[in-house]
Specification:
alpha/beta, 39 strands, binds iron/sulfur cluster, binds FE2/S2 (inorganic) cluster
Length: 952
C-alpha cells in the first residue's frame, strides 16, 4: 500500500473551521499549553492539542452553531459552562474539558437525544460510523431514564426519492448540520428546519422530496450528518468501507480530491477529501455519486480487432491486438508516407499517459501528428494567454476568489459545469462581492437563492470581442485604467498601438451596441465596476473560446486585466474554467502538433535537441496535423491511420457527417476507451481503456494543480492506459521500458522546466503542486505573474472585432448555442451509465416562448433543427433563459446529434470549432431526422458486431 491507501476511518474533524489569523494565542487546556491562531474556537484548540471534546452540532467544515450543548467546558473565571465550539480562545485562558460536573451535564443531554432515537444500532447502516453512537459512548451514557415509550419521531417515513442517498427522518437529531452545509458549503439553500420545538424537522420544503426539490445532490448534507439520517444508498446496501484510497475526480477541471472508500475491489463511496486544495471537502453529484460507470456492464474489457468496420470483431490477446495495430500502422506508412498516421491524446487520461502518447507519435510514428481534445475547447486559452501574458494557463488558484471584490463570469456556467468552484463563487457573492455575468443565456447565478448579479449582459453569440472592446474603450475613455501598472509591467509600444486602436469611436459601447445587442449604458456600468470595484477577477469558459474569434476574446480578456492592474495577486486574474479533468495537463504534456511539452515550439532546434538527446532519436522539426487537418487529409486520401485514446471524436467534434466520412476513410483506426463509443464503431482495433480508479498517475486541474490519481482497483482489462500505449510503442519498435507512472513523471520533470521540481514524493507531502515548480526547493506557484509576466512585459494585443461568417439569414434566422448541465458530463459516456440520468434523460432545445409561438411550437413538441450542415430533432422546452433569436441545447446524448448541425467554422488561430454560434431554423416535426435514423441503424449494426464478436 502506498501512503495514501489506509484503513477506513472517518476524516479528522476539528469541530470548527481553522482561523486564517497570523497572530498566535496561547492558552491552557487540561493543563497543557496550546498556541493557536487568534479566532480559533476552544474546541478546535483542544482538538489540535489532541484533546477530544464531545460534539454533535459542530463540524470543521461549517461555522459553529452552538445548539447541542454536548461540548460544554469549564473556563476559569467564567460563570457556567460555555460551549467550546462557539467560544473563541483568549490569551491566558484556562480550560477544563473533563470534570464530574461536565460529564453529568453531557450525559443528561445525550440521554434526551437517545430517548427520541430508534435503538437499532446493530442493524443501522452506519453502525460503527455514527457520531451520535460514538458520542454516547464518549460521555459514558449507560441508561435512558425517560424510557422510549413517550411521544417521539421514531416512526417517521423515509424519503428514498434520491437515487444516491436516503433521508430517514426518524434518526434526525435536528442539529442543522445538513441545513448549514446546504447553505454555507453548497449555496443551494434547499433545506430548512420546519416546525417548532418538538415538531422541528429537517425538510426540503412542503409537498416535495429530495429528487423533485431544488437539491442538486452534491452530498454535502450527507457528509455533514452525524447520524444515519442522511446516508448514501451504497452504504445502506454494502456497509461501511474497509479501506480508502486518496485520488482525484476524473470529471471536470476543478479536480476535486476524493477518498475512494473501498471494500476489497468495490468502491462503496466517494467522499470528498477535506485536505484536497481544489475542493476542501466539497463535491458535486458527478464526482461524489456518479462512479458506477466504472463497473457498468457496458465496460469493454478485451482487446478486439477486425479488417473492416463491416466485419464482426475478433476478441484477441493484448499481444495480438498491439501487434496487429502496429503492423497496420507501419504498412500505412510504407504505402502513404511517414505523415499518414497520427494520434489524439485524451484529456481524461493522466499526464503520464498523455506524455507517452505524444512521445510515441514523435519517436515511433516519426512525425508531430498529435493533437488533443483541447483543440475543441481551450486551445484559444493556450494561444491567447501565451501571447499576452506568456504562459498558457490561468493565473490563480480557486481559493483566490475569496479575495475578489468584483467577479466577471463570461461564457461559463460554473454552477452546472464547475459546481464546486460554483459553490466557492456563490459564497463570495453572499459575502458581498459584485457579479457581472456576460452570457447569451440567463444562467443560474444571474439570480440564485441569496445571489444576484449586479449586471447580466446577454451578449449576442459571436459578439464577445465587440463587448470586451467596448468595456476597454470605456475604461480608457473615462480615465479608469491603472496607468502605474501598465507603465511598470507592460510593453510600451504594444500598449500604445492598442490604445490607439481601442480609442477609436467604433469600439465605443454605443457603436458596438448593434453587434452585441447589449445596451451601451450597461456596458459602461460593467466597465466601471470592473475597473474601480477593488480586486476584479474574470472567470471564463467555452462560451469565450469556442468561437471564430476565440483566441481574440482570450486576448481581449487579458488586455482588460492588464489595463486595470487586475493581475499578479490574490483576488484578481484571468481564470479559464477548464472542462475536462486533465485538459490542462494534456496541453502541458505536449499534445499539440507544433509544441513539445511545456509549450515549446517543435521548430526550435535547442528545444528539440534536448528531447533528441534524452530520447535518442531525431525528431521532425515540422509541425504536424491538428485534428481538423487530420480529417481533411483523411478525406483527401493522405491520412490513413489514427490512434485515438479516450476521446469520442465522432460525437464531440463539429459537423458530425464530415467527421464520420473521415473516420470511414481510415485504413487503421485504433480506439482506446472504456466503452464502445461512437468513434469505436468506425474502428479496426479496440483497446479496452482503464478508468481513473484503475491506475496511478497525476491530473492537472484548471488551477495548474498537479494531483495524484491512485489505483483503487485492478484494471478490468488487465492494463492501465499507460501500459497499453507502452505496449503499442514497443510493438512499433520503440526501445522503451517504464516500470511505473512515477518513472514517467521523472522523465517529465527532467525535460519540462515548469515541472522540474515536481516529484511524487513532493506531491505526497504537499497534497498537490501548482506548476510552475522550477526546482527541488519550490513548492509551486498559486498565483502567477506576481512581479513580472512570464514573457517579461505584458503584451497588449489589438483585438479587432471581426463578425463570424456564420450569420443569420431568412433561411436560418436563429442562433443556436450549446452548453452543459450539472448532472451530465460532456458526451455523457460516463454519466449516462449512472443514476444521474434521473435528472437529465435527454437533450432538449430551449427556445424563447416568442420564437416558439411564431412557429406554433409548444412545450415538449418534437422540433427539427436545421443548419447549413445538417438536421436533427429534439424535444422543445420553452424558456426565457434564452433571449428571442437564440436557442440552446446540451450535447450529452449521441442520438441528439447536436454536432450534426454545428459548422466547421473555427477559431482563426487554433482551429477551435465555433460550437457556440450556429445559424439554424427550428420547425415543428413529427419524426427523427434522416441522420438520426441512419445513426440508429448504424448503431444497431455495430452493437451487433460487437455482441457477435468471436474469440480470435
Ligand atoms: S445534497 Fe447538496 S443540494 Fe441537496 S440538500 Fe444536500 S447539501 Fe443541499
Ligand atoms: S439530518 Fe442529520 S445533519 Fe440534518 S439535522 Fe438531522 S441529524 Fe443533523
Ligand atoms: S466539481 Fe468537477 S472535479 Fe469536483 S466532484 Fe464535481 S465533477 Fe468532480
Ligand atoms: S458541538 Fe458545541 S454546541 Fe454542539
Amino acid at each position: 500500500m502506498n501512503s495514501m491507501v489506509e484503513f477506513y476511518q472517518p476524516q479528522a474533524d476539528f469541530g470548527t473551521p481553522s482561523s486564517k489569523s497570523t497572530e498566535l494565542v496561547t492558552l491552557s487546556i487540561d493543563g497543557r499549553d496550546v498556541a493557536v491562531p487568534a479566532g480559533t474556537s476552544v474546541m478546535r484548540a483542544a482538538f489540535e492539542a489532541g484533546i477530544k471534546v464531545p460534539k454533535l452540532c459542530a463540524t470543521d467544515t461549517l461555522e459553529s452553531f452552538g445548539s447541542c450543548r454536548v461540548c460544554l467546558v469549564e473556563i476559569e473565571g467564567r460563570r457556567g459552562y460555555p460551549s467550546s465550539c462557539t467560544t473563541p480562545v483568549e490569551a491566558g485562558m484556562t480550560v477544563t474539558t473533563q470534570s464530574d460536573q461536565l460529564a453529568k451535564i453531557r450525559r443528561g443531554v445525550m440521554e434526551l437525544y437517545i430517548s427520541d432515537h430508534p435503538l437499532d444500532c446493530l442493524t443501522c447502516p452506519t453502525n460503527g460510523d455514527c457520531e451520535l453512537q460514538s458520542t454516547a459512548g464518549e460521555v459514558g451514557l449507560r441508561d435512558v431514564r425517560y424510557g422510549f415509550a413517550g411521544e417521539n419521531h421514531t416512526q417517521l417515513e423515509k424519503d428514498e426519492s434520491s437515487p444516491y442517498f436516503t433521508f430517514d427522518s426518524s434518526k434526525c437529531i435536528v442539529c442543522s448540520r445538513c441545513v448549514r452545509a446546504c447553505e454555507e458549503t453548497q449555496g443551494t439553500f434547499a433545506l430548512t428546519i420546519s416546525g417548532r420545538g418538538f415538531d422541528s424537522r429537517v425538510s426540503v420544503g412542503p409537498e416535495t422530496n429530495f429528487l423533485e426539490s431544488d437539491c442538486v445532490s452534491c452530498g454535502a448534507c450527507v457528509a455533514a450528518c452525524p447520524t444515519a439520517t442522511l446516508t448514501e444508498n451504497s452504504i445502506i446496501e454494502s456497509g461501511i468501507p474497509e479501506h480508502s484510497v486518496t485520488t482525484t475526480c476524473a470529471y471536470c477541471g476543478v479536480g476535486c480530491g476524493f477518498k475512494a472508500e473501498m471494500r476489497g475491489q468495490e468502491v462503496i463511496r466517494m467522499t470528498p477529501w477535506k485536505d484536497g486544495k481544489a475542493n476542501e471537502g466539497h463535491a458535486c453529484v458527478k464526482g461524489r455519486f456518479a462512479f458506477g460507470y466504472a463497473t457498468h456492464k457496458d465496460r469493454m474489457t478485451e482487446p478486439m480487432i477486425r479488417d473492416s468496420i463491416d466485419d464482426p470483431w475478433k476478441r484477441v490477446s493484448w499481444d495480438e491486438a498491439l501487434t496487429f495495430a502496429a503492423s497496420r500502422l507501419r504498412s500505412i506508412q510504407e504505402k502513404y508516407g511517414t505523415k499518414s498516421i497520427g494520434a489524439i491524446s485524451s484529456s481524461r487520461c493522466t499526464n503520464e499517459e498523455v506524455w507517452l502518447v505524444q512521445k510515441m507519435v514523435r519517436t515511433g510514428f516519426g512525425n508531430n501528428n498529435v493533437d488533443t481534445c483541447a483543440r475543441v475547447c481551450h486551445s484559444p486559452t493556450g494561444y491567447g494567454l501565451k501571447q499576452t501574458l506568456g504562459e498558457s494557463a490561468g493565473t490563480q488558484d480557486f481559493a483566490s476568489v475569496a479575495d475578489a471584490d468584483v467577479i466577471v463570469v463570461m461564457g461559463a456556467n460554473p454552477t452546472e459545469a464547475h459546481p464546486v468552484f460554483g459553490s466557492r463563487l456563490k459564497k463570495r457573492l453572499r459575502e458581498g462581492a459584485h457579479l457581472i455575468v456576460i452570457d447569451p443565456r440567463r444562467i443560474e447565478i444571474v439570480g440564485a437563492p441569496h445571489v444576484r448579479s449586479d449586471l447580466h449582459l446577454p451578449v449576442r453569440p459571436g459578439a464577445n470581442v465587440a463587448l470586451l472592446n467596448a468595456m476597454a474603450h470605456t475604461i480608457v475613455d473615462e480615465g479608469l485604467m491603472d496607468q502605474r501598472f501598465v507603465d511598470s509591467r507592460c510593453d510600451k509600444v504594444a500598449f500604445s498601438n492598442w490604445l490607439t486602436f481601442i480609442q477609436q469611436p467604433e469600439n465605443s459601447p454605443e457603436a458596438m451596441e448593434a453587434h452585441t445587442g447589449v445596451h451601451a449604458n450597461d456596458v459602461r456600468v460593467a466597465a466601471r465596476i470592473y475597473a474601480t470595484g477593488g480586486n476584479a477577477a474574470i472567470y471564463y469558459g467555452l462560451g469565450v473560446t469556442e468561437h471564430s474569434q476565440g483566441s481574440t476574446t482570450v486576448m481581449a480578456i487579458a488586455n482588460l486585466a492588464m489595463l486595470t492592474g487586475n493581475i499578479g495577486r490574490r483576488g484578481v486574474g484571468v481564470n479559464p474554467l477548464r472542462g475536462q479533468n486533465n485538459v490542462q495537463g494534456s496541453c502541458d504534456m505536449g499534445s499539440f502538433p507544433h509544441e513539445l511539452p511545456g509549450y515549446r515550439p517543435v521548430s526550435d532546434d535547442a528545444v528539440r535537441g534536448s528531447f533528441e538527446a534524452a530520447w535518442g532519436v531525431t525528431l521532425d522539426p515540422e509541425p504536424g496535423h491538428r485534428i481538423p487537418n487530420m480529417f481533411e487529409e483523411a478525406l483527401s486520401g493522405a491520412f490513413k491511420g489514427l490512434y485515438c485514446q479516450g476521446e469520442d471524436i465522432a460525437q464531440s467534434d463539429p459537423n458530425t457527417q464530415h467527421v464520420e466520412a473521415a473516420l470511414e476513410s481510415m485504413e487503421c483506426l485504433i480506439v482506446q476507451d472504456i466503452f464502445l463509443n461512437e468513434t469505436a464503431k468506425f474502428a479496426h482495433v479496440f483497446l479496452p481503456g482503464s478508468s481513473f480508479l484503475e491506475k496511478d498517475g497525476t491530473f492537472t486541474n484548471a488551477e495548474r494543480r498537479i494531483s495524484r490519481v491512485r489505483k483503487a482497483m485492478e484494471p478490468l482489462a488487465g492494463k492501465a492506459d499507460w501500459q497499453s500505449t507502452l505496449g503499442l510503442a514497443q510493438a512499433l519498435g520503440c526501445d522503451w521500458d517504464y516500470e511505473s507512472p512515477e518513472e514517467i513523471m521523472r522523465e517529465i520533470s527532467a525535460l519540462t522546466p515548469t515541472f522540474a521540481g515536481v516529484t511524487y514524493e513532493k506531491i505526497e507531502r504537499l497534497g498537490s503542486i501548482q506548476w510552475p515548480c522550477w526546482d527541488e526547493e519550490s513548492e509551486g506557484t498559486p498565483t502567477m505573474h506576481e512581479e513580472s509576466f512570464t514573457r517579461g512585459l505584458g503584451q497588449f494585443i489589438v483585438t479587432e472585432y471581426v463578425p463570424t461568417d456564420e450569420r443569420c439569414s431568412r433561411r436560418f434566422p436563429l442562433i443556436m448555442t450549446t452548453g452543459r448541465i450539472l448532472s451530465q458530463y460532456n458526451v455523457g459516456a460516463q454519466t449516462r451509465r449512472t443514476e444521474n440520468s434521473a435528472w437529465h434523460e435527454e437533450d432538449v432545445l430551449e427556445i424563447h416562448p416568442e420564437d416558439a409561438q411564431e412557429r406554433g411550437i409548444s412545450e415538449g413538441d418534437w422540433v427539427g433543427i436545421s443548419s447549413r450542415m445538417g438536421d436533427t430533432v429534439l424535444h422543445a422546452r420553452l424558456s426565457k433563459r434564452v433571449r428571442p433569436g437564440v436557442v440552446y441545447t446540451t450535447f450529452h446524448h449521441p442520438v441528439s446529434g447536436a454536432n450534426v448541425i454545428t459548422t466547421d467554422s473555427s477559431d482563426w488561430a487554433t482551429n477551435c470549432p465555433e460550437y457556440k454560434v450556429t445559424a439554424v431554423q427550428v420547425t415543428r416535426v413529427t419524426q427523427p431526422s434522416d441522420w438520426q435514423e441512419r445513426q440508429k441503424t448504424f448503431d444497431v449494426k455495430q452493437q451487433r458486431l460487437a455482441k457477435d464478436s468471436v474469440v480470435g
